[in-house]
Amino acid sequence: MSNRDFLRQTLAGTLPARRHGESAGFVWRWLDEGVMELSPSGRAQAAVVLSAGVHGNETAPVELLADLLDELLSGRRRLAVRLLVVLGNPAALRAGRRYLVNDMNRMFGQKGIADFTPSGETARSLVLSQHLLGFFAVDDGLPRWHLDLHTAIRGSLHPRFALRPFRARGYAPSLLSWLEAAALDALVTHRAQGATFTHFSSESVDAMSATLELGKALPFGANDLVQFSAVSRALAALIGGLPLPVRDGPPLKRYRVSQQITRNSEDFALLIPADTLNFTEFQRGEPLAREHGREYRVEQAREWILFPNPSVALGLRAGLMLVEAPEEAG
Ligand SMILES: [Zn+2]
Questions:
Q1: Regions of the chain with pLDDT less than 50
Q2: What is the pTM of this model?
Q3: Which long-range contacts (CB under 8 A, 24 or more apart) does 280-288 make?
């Protein structure tokens, strides 16, 4: 395993000749297509899952993880944590598409796959859930992390941001410190149960979980990885047991979800321009969307929009509205 073999073989859909081995200070095991576990020979400081490519057209974070893995395997970087690297949806990565049948990042956790027609994606979401549970089944008392790396489809007034799943139990401060060190521009906290990969890890194994949106999606090879350097450094610090980089830039902006816009009816129409940027501000009373028997309007004095998308399947999220939450603890 070297020189992006893990990525190359995952994209080719081939099995590696060797499925386990020893490298500089750790052993690695290829567990499944796009799933690799690394265990340090010394005492681990944390157990960390890093995933990317849950959406197959979001390639920059996949390249970022492949580079990180290469640095570990070539001995250029030291490993101080138990690490599970996951390339989420290899079939969609090969096709360069967000998904083939249904959005896999709506299939995890309690709600699960019940609402979806069986497909490669429903099967894959179960496989990934099992690997994640298996990885954390070892009760070693280590801090548990799961960072799921994405890029957004549309432009964003905050280019790099994180989403934290809803947690009745509250949040560990170390996740916030890491997000700040990674030079992210904003943090959005969910207020309701979801079906994303990070909701699942937060809920099922009590991991410090966040979905990271790291800029705009481009095809393989067209990504300018320089814009990801701060995140890359913060990831390297996390898995290398090194001090976090010092944040450079304005403080992290904090939001929480105020309302979800759901497409429940065939006549659903978004009433804002299709190219509205993420984190565009709206004033109380402005109409946002309309469908049979229901209209969505801005409810608070000011709300900011995230992920507006009228063409989602029925019953799924067509957008989120946010309010500022600067004072929120944790
Ligand atoms: Zn995504």
A1: 330
A2: 0.94
A3: 280/157, 280/304, 280/305, 282/321, 288/261, 288/319, 288/321
